[in-house]
Design brief:
It is built from six helices and no strands. With 217 residues, the protein is an all-alpha fold. Helix 2 runs antiparallel to helix 3. The longest helix has 43 residues. The termini are far apart. The mean pLDDT is 84.
């Protein structure tokens, strides 16, 4: 190698992918031996970096390799000094890709946790909200692709549950009122001059006692 030629070193932690990338050798009738040697050292490293990259990151490294290959093939052999720079570029692209993948995985875990919470709400609401509403909310949850969409479905589930419980509470109050009225009508007037305040459980218990006493008589 010429004096001062940068060391071509495999980055620490670079894995060997199942499908390494293709790295073409510069083409020139008088390609110096030292350029061939530099290429021979850099090629397997660059191939593994390409095989570990994907998408735009891989395309960026492929373009940089092709550009350097073209320059060296045109006779500018001193540009072989840049093989170390190409390897460093691949290392940076891999580091960026790992960070992006980690962030994507974190976001996905957050989405799945939010989806599970809303799905649990829906499961608990299955017997309380109308079937049509439940089906619509289930479909909306399945189609939601971001945290905002999932949260919106969760808020609607909460609102639907609140509305259904209000309806159930009003229905229960009406039933209690009807039951109390029947009890009062079946009780002698002298016993109803000052009716005590009774909760619905007591009202139903008294109704059962009245009905039992009536059957016995």
């Amino acid at each position: 190698m010429p004096p001062g030629f940068p060391a071509i070193v495999r980055p620490q932690g670079l894995t060997r992918p199942a499908n390494p990338g293709m790295v073409a050798e510069p083409e020139h009738h008088h390609l110096p031996a030292w350029v061939r040697r530099a290429f021979g050292l850099a090629r397997p490293i660059l191939a593994d970096e390409l095989g570990s990259l994907s998408g735009d990151a891989r395309g960026k490294l492929e373009d940089a390799i092709a550009e350097l290959n073209s320059v060296i093939s045109s006779g500018k052999f001193s540009q072989a000094f840049r093989y170390a720079d190409l390897i460093a570029l691949g290392e940076r692209l891999l580091a960026d890709q790992r960070r992006e993948q980690a962030e994507t995985a974190r976001v996905q875990r957050t989405l799945e946790a939010a989806r599970k919470r809303v799905n649990d709400q829906l499961r608990d609401a299955a017997t309380q909200v109308p079937q049509e509403t439940w089906s619509r909310l289930s479909k909306s949850l399945r189609s939601a692709t971001d945290l905002e969409g999932i949260s919106a479905v969760g808020e609607e589930v909460t609102a639907s549950l609140s509305s259904a419980r209000s309806v159930q509470e009003r229905r229960r109050e009406r039933e209690i009122h009807r039951t109390r009225t029947r009890i009062q009508r079946s009780t002698p007037r002298s016993q109803t001059s000052a009716p005590p305040a009774e909760d619905w459980v007591e009202v139903l218990r008294r109704l059962q006692e009245e009905m039992t006493a009536g059957s016995a008589t």
